[in-house]
Each structure stands twice: as C-alpha cells, then as structure tokens.
Design goal:
The chain has 366 residues and is an alpha/beta fold. It contains 13 helices and 12 strands. It starts with a helix and ends with a helix.
Length: 366
C-alpha cells in the first residue's frame, strides 16, 4: 500500500498493511532554508514532496490556513532587523505586538504580545468585529496535485478563541489575569472572536482540504479541565461536527503533556489527536494512551519525540524506543506513527530515513 492508501484506510476504520508513518518535517525544512541549503520557496515546491518520498515519510502538514483576513481598519506591519511588528489602529485604542526571529533556532517567538491586559480587550473586540475573511484556496489546489500517493491534504481552521489568545495574542498570564479581573468582558471578547472565527472556519471546511485541523497546541499543564470545558469544548465540538458533516476528518494538535486532558479531548469526537508525546519526553507511556483516551474511535497519532532524531539520543535508544512504540501501534489500527511534534533542524537525516526501515521490520499488524 502507498502512504496515502494506508492513512485513508485507517481514518476510515479499516486496517492497512502496516502502521502508517507520517512526519512533520516543516521545522527541519525551515532550518535548511535558513542555512541556505534549500531555496526560499522549497516548502511550496514539487521538490518538497519529492523530499518526503525520498525519506520514506508520509506527508500531511504544511501549516496552511486556506483563508485570509481583511481588516476594515488600519493595520501597520514593519520589520526592524530580526523583529517583526504589527500594530492595529482602532477607535478603541492601538494594539501592538512584536515577534523576534532567532537565527540560532530558525524560529520566532513573541517578545511583546498584542494584548497586555484586560484594558486592551475593547480594541481587540473592535478589530475582530471589523475583520472579514475570504477564501485563499490556490495553494491548497496546487498542493493536492503535488501530494499524489505520498499523503493527504490538511488545512487549518482557526484555533479556538481562547487558545488563540493563550498561544498567540496574549499569553497564559495575561489571559488568566483578564479572566480574574474582568470575567464578563473577557467572555464578551471571546464571543466576538468566535463570531469572526466561525466565518473563517466555514471557509476552511469548504476548502479543497481532505482533512482539517484545529491547531490548538494543547498541553495539559497549561490548559486543564476547567479552562477546556468552559472555553474550548463548545467551539471544538461545533466545528468537529461541521467537519464530519462535510465528509472530512478532524484533527486537534496536542503536543504537550497528556494527563489531565487527553480523555476530555478525545470525548469531543475529534477523529485524530495529533503530535502526542510519550515518555520519557512526555508524561504518559504509550502503553497507557488508549486507556486514558477512553474513546475507542479516536486515532492516536505521534510517538517519536523530536529530540530522538538528534545526536542527544543514541542510535540504540532510538531503535529501542521506536520498536516499543510500534509494538503498541501494531496491536490495532487506531495509531499513526508520527513526530512529537516536529523533526528539528539539528536532526540526523539517516534517522529520519531509518524510521521506514523499522516500520518495515516491526510495523506489520499482528
């Protein structure tokens, strides 16, 4: 079977010939581009898919939102060295954020959040109330033709409004203080954001994507049961249902700790929980994933921590770990062997290639 045939069989409740192996190579590719080893447009090219084929890695992720926001207010964008700035100019006040790119890690992180406190919520509500959304499907159509038998086309919905604030625009500290200081205003802000995000989510569901992800970036030690049940479950369940009604499969990205949230996430009815990290990097042995998840229909996707692809882990430990993971995964067709959550830029290429060799040896269903 091809990688595409394997993953489609498993997602549709059938047993493929062996455990599907699908890896997120986006971060590694960013590092190669940053080092000048690949052209700037590498990730959008035909060669990117050929790279996956040559490495024996199934393809699914490219971090693509099939819509674009159109603000009905002034949005200022500029760069200063490795820092990029965005400022929203509204009648309720201005909001500014800054993200700094770190050449050593080929990644960026926020050093100034758009929302600093509850005082910024009126301006944020204005911004989302005055943002429209339009389809951006051209890349999805082109990518679908590139993928061929190597995988599936996945696109993103917006995060849930709560997680969007936590992960991108405010941070967990500002969110927590805003809930405590202005709970009604915070709830009103989430409602305005959801009304806006629903329009973008509908565009995503209607896109050429075969599967759709709510890219929450969940970790149980940050988002526990209380926050999840109050602020995230309703949005997820609504759009997981809409994805299913469109005849497509839903994904949620959960790449952090699992205890305290895995069962809740599985109970939403999502098709796949993706990027799951087992011990010794995560907090839950893979042998316990199924029991804690509860829902027998949820596909559990992950198993190889990103650090395992680097020289920080020996070849012997890498092989031992992957064999243990495959021993569990080949027991029944509800698992996908994946990376938790990305292959890093300092990876050992031969290890990435070696995964398919291990699957050929140990990944056939028992």
């Amino acid at each position: 079977m091809t990688p595409r045939e394997r993953i489609l069989a498993l997602l549709n409740g059938k047993q493929p010939d062996q455990v599907p192996w699908f890896g997120d190579l986006d971060y590694w590719a960013s590092g190669l581009i940053g080092q000048g080893k690949r052209p700037g447009a590498f990730k959008e090219s035909d060669e990117y898919l050929e790279w996956h084929r040559s490495l024996g890695v199934g393809f699914y992720l490219q971090g693509y939102f099939p819509f674009r926001g159109v603000p009905d207010f002034e949005e200022r964008l500029w760069r200063e060295g490795n820092r990029r700035y965005r400022e929203l100019v509204t009648p309720k006040g201005n909001l500014r954020e800054c993200w700094e790119y770190l050449p050593e890690s080929f990644a960026e992180a926020p050093i100034e959040h758009l929302v600093k406190s509850e005082d910024d919520l009126p301006a944020l509500r204005y911004a989302y109330a005055h943002t429209s959304w339009e389809p951006d499907y051209d890349f999805a159509r082109r990518r679908l033709g590139q993928i061929g038998d190597q995988g599936i086309l996945l696109c993103y919905l917006p995060k849930s409004p709560f997680m969007h604030l936590v992960a991108l625009e405010a941070g967990i500290s500002a969110v927590t203080f805003a809930i405590a200081a202005a709970p009604d205003e915070f709830a009103e802000t989430l409602a305005v954001m959801k009304a806006s995000f629903d329009k973008a989510a509908r565009i995503a569901v209607d896109s050429p994507a075969e599967v759709l992800m709510i890219p929450e970036n969940l970790s149980a030690e940050m988002i526990g049961r209380r926050f999840f049940e109050k602020y995230m479950r309703p949005y997820q369940e609504e759009w997981i249902g809409e994805i299913a009604r469109a005849g497509k499969h839903s994904f949620v990205h959960m790449d952090g700790t699992l205890k305290g949230l895995l069962r809740e996430q599985a109970s939403t009815g999502v098709t796949v929980i993706e990027a799951m990290t087992p011990d010794p990097v995560g907090d839950l042995p893979i042998e316990q994933w199924e029991e804690l998840a509860g829902n027998p229909r949820t596909v559990l996707w992950g198993g190889i921590p990103g650090v395992y692809f680097t020289a920080k882990v020996s070849d012997e430990e890498f092989d031992r770990h992957v064999r243990v993971v495959l021993e569990v995964m080949r027991s029944r067709p509800r698992y996908v062997l994946g990376v938790a959550d990305q292959v890093p830029p300092d990876c050992l290429e031969y290890r990435v290639r070696h995964v398919q060799e291990l699957v050929e040896q140990y990944g056939w269903y028992s």
